[in-house]
Specification:
two-stranded antiparallel sheet, 23% strand
Length: 128
């Protein structure tokens, strides 16, 4: 299953190439927190940073710091820019790319990418 967990914060509209109006739900999907940083030699992983070319300079500075921080701890860092398009397309493109990267990295490391204990717990809590 592919998706994001977020909070609906409003509605807006975009126009396609033919000038047709398309309603769009705006979802706030805060970034995932870093819960642990370990070095690549022990954990055997790399970091993939998804970036928007239109990021605010403060966001750019934070990404640069994060790249240096992780690299200084032996973590291989790859940066991928969002696909071209309108802002909503870029955000959704990054979300989809992040989901697929996670999925295939799990498969490469012999893990079951569908096993999501946190999501299972959330579903159980919401069903009561």
């Amino acid at each position: 299953m592919i998706g994001i967990i977020g909070k609906k914060i409003g509605m807006t509209q975009v126009f396609n190439d033919r000038g047709e109006q398309i309603p769009v739900t705006v979802v706030e999907a805060p970034p995932n927190p870093v819960v642990k940083v370990t070095d690549k030699a022990v954990a055997g992983f790399a970091a993939v940073l998804l970036r928007d070319p239109d990021d605010h300079p403060r966001v750019v500075a934070r990404f640069r710091w994060l790249e240096r921080y992780l690299a200084g701890r032996g973590v291989q860092v790859e940066t991928v820019e969002a696909p071209e398009g309108d802002p909503m397309s870029r955000v959704l493109g990054c979300v989809a790319l992040g989901d697929w990267v996670s999925y295939y990295v799990a498969l490469l490391h012999g893990s079951d990418p569908s096993a999501l204990p946190g999501v299972t717990s959330l579903k159980q809590a919401l069903s009561t």
